[in-house]
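Hello forum,

I keep getting stuck at the same step: I have a sequence, I want structure tokens, and every attempt I make locally crashes halfway through. Rather than fight my setup again tonight, could one of you with a working pipeline run this one for me? It's a single chain of 117 residues.
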Amino acid sequence: MTVLFILNDAPYGSEKAYNALRLAMKLQQEQADAEVRVFLMADAVTAALPNQTTPQGYYNIERMFKAVIGKGGQIKICGTCAEGRGIQALKLIEGVETSTISQLALWVMNSDKVLTF
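Reply #2:
Ran it on my machine without issues. Output:
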């Protein structure tokens, strides 16, 4: 089964990204055959920036992305959204790729489940 997570909100401030990634990680843990894909749009593209520092005991989106990627998940960001926020030239977390709305459309069509956060 292929599950696509579409994230729209900034990585911190609300817990939408956190909850999406918790679910993605749980799927990878409990469903070995699950293919997890994450597409970041709008303010969520900032979640792909490396060197995130969070207080002790607080969740860290960068570490969660690395866990998803480490289990074979794919994470892509909307290039247009990154450009609109002035981050298109910045380094991303290793394993995260800049992509297009065309790629998202393809992922939507080729996914069994699409979840939006």
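Strands lie at 2-7, 35-40, 74-78, 96-99, 113-116. If your local run keeps crashing, start a new thread with the error log.
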